[in-house]
Amino acid sequence: MSKQPIYEGKAKQIFETEHQDELLVYFKDDATAFNGLKKGTIINKGVFNNKISTFFFKLLGENGIPHHLVKTISDREMLVKRLTIVPVEVVVRNIAAGSLAKRIGWEEGKKMPSTVVELYYKNDDLGDPLVNDYHIKAMGIATEEQVATMEKYALQINNILSDYLAAKKIELIDFKLEFGVYKGEIILGDEISPDTCRFWDSETHEKLDKDRFRRDLGNVEDAYKEVLYRLTGESL
Ligand code: TMP
After folding, report:
1. Residue 106 has pLDDT above 80, yes or no
2. Closest by CA position to 106, among listed 95, 116, 117
């Protein structure tokens, strides 16, 4: 395994492995918000996110969603299939929150009569702008068929995760997915964790996700810890 990452993002490092079509993902404790303007550390976030993502990828795999996880190899490392990343972030929303609540002028927590799917162009220099399928087609970053596949998976994933989390007394408010192409097929990549989802306690509506960091709400580590515990029973 090479020592230098071939790519370093805000929360993860990516390394090549001896297998050409597999990569190693290392989950860091670094946390950023507002496109990197706010920086910090969430102690053991890398461990929590690796374990929580592993749990969700396995759950989704059992339910027929193709994903990149090959094997989880340590507390902070997973082996994944090498995808050609599609530079589109797919966001699914069940309850209005965050940027949607702001854009439409809805109160955070408003139940929406139907699920909302949004597409963002993954580009840090532009601050990941909201785009639609026409923009994506015109930019040539994904085909219409690929967009349709990503949206179909995103809605299936929403059903699987929402149902599972509801049984653990967690409400899935919204989440972000990234996909890539592997051997010609769209498959789920990246991570699914409190960094990339909004989780609210079903009874108290307490936030159990990265909004605690973004908004300086305190007890950030405890939120990640609680999500892992409710999903797997594991205490760190
Ligand atoms: P938003 O309301 O800020 O647009 O976020 C929607 C969802 O996407 C939320 O669950 C958090 C997640 N998200 C990311 O995973 N990465 C990001 O950079 C942002 C802005 C949001």
Report:
1. yes
2. 95
